[in-house]
Design brief:
This protein is α+β, with helices and mostly antiparallel strands. The strands form six sheets. Strands 1, 2, 3, 9, 10 and 11 form a six-stranded mixed beta sheet that branches. A four-stranded antiparallel beta sheet has the order 14-16-17-15, with helices on both faces. The chain has a three-stranded antiparallel beta sheet with strand order 5-7-6, covered by helices on one side. A hairpin with an 8-residue loop joins strand 12 and strand 13 (188-190). Helix 22 (601-622) packs antiparallel against helix 23 (626-634).
Length: 682
Amino acid sequence: MSELFIELFSEEIPARMQARAADDLARLLGEALAAIAPAEVRTFYGPRRIALSAEVAGSVAESRSSERGPRRNAPEQALAGFLRKHGATKDNLREEGDFWVLDKVVPGVDAAALVAAALPAVLRKFPWPKSMRWGGSSGFTWVRPLRRITCLLDGAVVAFDLRDGDDDGHGLASAALTEGHRFLSPGAFAVTGCADWAEKLGARHVIVTAAERRALIDSGLKSLAAAEGLTVVEDAGLLDEVTGLVEWPVPYLGRIDDAYMDLPAEVMQVSMRVNQRYFALCDASGKAAARFAFIANIPPSDGGAAMVAGNERVLRARFADARHFWDLDRKSTLESRVAALDKVTFHAKLGSQGARVRRLVRLAGVLAEFTGADRAQAERAALLAKADLTTGLVGEFPEVQGIMGGYYARHDGEDAAVGEAIADHYAPKGPGDAVPRNPVGLAAALADKLDQLAGFFAIGEKPTGSGDPYALRRAALGVIRIIREGGLRLPLRALIEAAGAGQPADLDVEDVLGFLIERLRVQLRAEGARYDVLNAVLGTGLDDDLTRLLARSEAVAAMLATDDGANLLAGYKRAANILRIEEKKDGPHDRAVDTALLEAPEEHALAAALDQAEPAVKTLLASEEFGPAMAEFAALRPQLDAFFTGVTVNDPRATVRLNRLALLARVRAVMGRVADFARIEG
């Protein structure tokens, strides 16, 4: 095997595009160079380069094949089409029986030639989200001006260029040259392979591995913060972004003027992250600290004093803007802003935010009964929940919508539960986000998500395999998490119907409920839970109480984890298979069992066990005692085992056979009260 190494060196690549670009490079080269079987592929990415190394075969051997063409007496057009398809002439054909046959020889090629032939096309069709042209008249595009192409096979340059007809491709051609840090180690130098490249760049102030840069940034920030008794506010997204902005990370701390420390902590954090890529810090009590952290791409000669001062000056200006909006917004109450929501579009087909708020008020009032909230408070929270969309701070920083509403509600003297509900009504926004903390917040959050689902489903804007522009999957998972973590008992059908009542189009309630159940399946699968058990429980009907549904599923799963449960399942499936076959002949067999026709002691024992289990199971299921109900099922195991051991179901006497099939059908019916056990895997 030979080492293939490629580096594409350019002007600064947006951080958010780097990892995807490295993956695309690996994918496209894997497709284009499949003949030399790239293996042990490693990718690298950073601010000015994406790179790849792989082990590849040194050459592709010659191959021969035969392709049968049209019959010899076929029309000339058919023969001409065959020849055109294969780029051959009639002289290349031979006769074989009644057919023309083309013998094809694909000559061998060495890896370097294959790479040189493939790379220009790969680079010309590279799928950057956005590309640019620069200089001259070349049609070649890249995310930012591409400056160098390094392409080596076992240390030797694989020669190619990006010319395409009259297009000179900016004069770009492969070589063995790359460049170090733009400021600390400028200038080109030669490399011989991946290891040499990484080592020489490291000596020239470039850390080529993103994971290593990220770890250095993380540890450097935490070390500086810890030295002052502070901690860094966790922000994985910002950490990833900064990793893509620097090649030689150097951490620093700056100070926030005390005059701005009364701003909401979330506003300060968002302003620092969005505008300057700064990291927020907090003290031992978890409160915002008057410090911030940032990463530089160079170690300044003055120890960073001028750089820190410059960043502090920039931050003062940013916070001054935030304070302007903060002070201005509080001059108007949230309640006074509600009317303006009629002029804010939610969606062209779903009307204004004002219309949506009126739906939320109605729905939150209904939900209050199920979350234990005060109805008036729930309706008040829903009324004010979207009012902060008209504020200056939310206009400047959309990330703090809802959060700012909570601050403004407290400033206006609204009830504490109402303010907290407004702040939390978007929650949970993701898997790492907590669910709302009080009953009013639960009602407001559920109303927001159910209205979102009902509205977009009503107008046909459902998620597809390729997209979910309105975040409906996230909304559904939010509903599920709120129900599961709060143990709420919600009649989802009725609530979805209530959410659909105010929509501008008719809603298929079962469609939305099915979507929620599918998201529940996805969540259980991600947790490693037995989603096949959920499918089995759903086989008895679509229960819209998710808490009850999960309790039934957990009880079934617990039973199946026992020896009795596993053996009972095997017996059930045997019974179901027999019934499936026999019912094709003369079914169905869901008839009453004639006790006078029971002969074998095993038949009597199974019938007696069913007589005991059936009413007990019915009573236990009605009172939602699912564990004890499963114990009643498990108790059937020995009688069912004995039945199959000692009884011939397909007795030659028709009446006995039908009665035994009816007995098995009764087993299926009793167990089918809680789940369709045929859907259980294994």
